[in-house]
User: Fold this.
Amino acid sequence: RIADDCVRELYPWVYVNFTAPVPRRLLEVFAELLAAGGKLSSIRHIKVVDRTLGFVALSNDMFTLCMPDAFRQLNSRKTQDSEMNELLQKISMGVTHATQTLPVIAFSKGGPSQDVAHRVSASLFDMVNDRSFVPKPVAALGRPLLLIVDRSSDLTAALHHAFSYRGLLVDAVGMRLNKVDLIGNDGKEKSYEMDPDNDSFYRANGGVDFGEVGTNLDAALAEYKREVTQYSVDHGGPSGIPDGDASDAAIMKMLANAPKLAEKKRSLDAHMSIAYSILKKIKENEIDGFHGVEFGLLSRSGLDEEHFVKLMEGPASIEDKQRLFLIAYLLADSETAVHELEKQFLQYVSQKPAMQVDGAQMSNESTSESRSSIAAKLRFPALEYVKHLQSWSMSSPAVSNKDAPSSGWGFAQSLAKGIAASLKGSTEVEFPLTRMVDALLQDASGVSRNSASSNSVRAKVLESVAAVDPRTKQPVDITDVRFHQVLVFVVGGGSVNEFDDLKKWEAKQQNRKSAVFGCTELLCGHEMLDQLTALGVELRAAVK
Assistant:
């Protein structure tokens, strides 16, 4: 209808504004319809303006596209080609909208990240050439790097039990879009909003280990009381209300400061309530125990077998135990270690008197062999799917697309395991994504704080990624390019663990380098497990 009106020359000026993302192909069809008319001489100007915003900023350095279940959709056999194309287009548009300067785009080879990267490059190329996108001036430090990676390159970070304040807000009490809903002592639900711009306590403590939050909260409350006391003294009364002799300036100062103090008290009271709820969740679900064992695995200190068995036999949910097991499985050093882990987990399952398993029930009367079989085939579909991905990744590269899972997209967990291996004996954990960023943002000379080990990681990372310049849409070699800013985007869902880890890395750079984190959705560990489980159930049905 719009194209027909233009061809009929009904208007001297035409502006088309879309309030939702429009696929590139639809815009091409629109252009073809306009050109097919053959006469647009009376229309002096036609312009298509994209005014959509495809992302939600959770803070100045983190955003999400609010696309739940993206990992499952991207890897599901049931996803049709048209649905896949629409999904990838939506992701690429969201990433494009979040780009404020013209970056160099690096991406994991193969998988959806490669497709998204090329789509983003094409969009930026078109927007720059038709001048609908005017990037901010490039800083003296040079163009930024846009790094697009797949969630499948590291499942451990998404499954790991977080123990930072922000991580527990997401994983333990279900914070979504910076909003937390809690049930109070009166049985009523109360909502709290974390505002990183105005909430100084959250801004300072979001990435802090929860063990330190209580102490910091006490200190903040003590500081608030000192401010109130000083405020009262300054304004001539115990209530802080100026007496009749007070100057206009004193009254104005009181009116300006009183709301700030009231808001600070409200914020600290909210954090007290939230911290208490988190503490209850930690005790109920032994989150500190799961975090500790997983931390040992991630830092390559080894598996604390005694604590591992204790957690498996404890009262925590089966989902928490599966998350721990999958991390141990993915980071296992050998086949022997893998078999021993499976044996321990199946032994735990077989000792349960009765367990509901995907609609089937295991009872005491089942034989040991049949119970193990049920446990392996019904209890843990997420593990089945992970094994399927690993088996496919180790197959010949000549495998045809029809035989490859998820439209031929592979599994890069081996890279994550290889990077993690270089951390053996470390008292800190840097997730593979952080190590990847650190490697790509090293100085061009390759000189770094850990020389040999860091250069080895950098070489592995450069082998696993490719890059494209949206100015030309052509591949570029970034081996000798120096970057100081990076926008990291995780296709398939990001983890608070990764964001917190990136911020710790950034703090060590002494303002020389910065990182922004984005993802299709901000996942908690249970959501990641649910999507792996759904894919495992789907895989089992396909095999049958």
